[in-house]
Amino acid sequence: MKLRAALVTAVLIAPLAITGTAAHADPNNNSVRKLVKAVNGKNVKRHLKVLDLIAKANGNTRVDGTRGYELSRDYVAGLLRLAGYKVSTQKFTFENLEFKTKPVFERRSPSPQVFALGLDWTPSGHTAEGTFSGKVQAVDVMIPPGARAQLLDLGVRGGRLRRVHAG
Question: Which residues pair with 156 in a beta bridge?
Answer without folding.
Answer: 161
